[in-house]
Amino acid sequence: MDILIDTHILIWFQEGNEQLDNNRLSLLTDTENQIFVSQISLMELAIKYKLNKLPAFIVDVATVIRQIKIDDFSILPIKDSHVVNYQNIPLYDSHRDPFDRFLVAIAQSKNLALMTSDSKFEHYKDFLHII
Fold first, then answer.
1. Domains identified in the chain and CATH numbers
2. How crowded is residue 101: how many other Cβ atoms within 10 Å of its Cβ?
3. Cα-Cα-Cα-Cα dihedral sign, residues 112, 19, 100, 120
4. pLDDT tens for residues 56-85?
5. Residue ranges of the PIN domain (predicted)?
6. Highest mean pLDDT: which of 9-18, 28-37, 40-49, 120-129?
7. Which residues pair with 4 in a beta bridge?
């Protein structure tokens, strides 16, 4: 399965956080699956790190990128088609986060399942496989 992971899943996986349930952990470590991390997640981490919005997450983005490569995950660059598709993603009052919505646009345009712990992504389950 081809899976795009959201930013929290990335953080939890790299930290070994217990909030990452066994089902998701087994999907992330199954070598039959291709795991993707979007550059948008790396941007989000860099911004939140600089603004001290992630006080428990103490590593810089360069370290995160190195670990992504060690974990054999693939980094997805932001493409024009993702930006165009972003315009077509429905906007909900209860889910306006631009980083999250960009992940939805990427997953949809690349036909990827999206792994997240955020229940707000349920808005998109009619046109996107949410794990």
1. 2-124 (3.40.50.1010)
2. 21
3. positive
4. 766 788 999 999 999 999 999 999 888 888
5. 3-125
6. 28-37
7. 36, 114
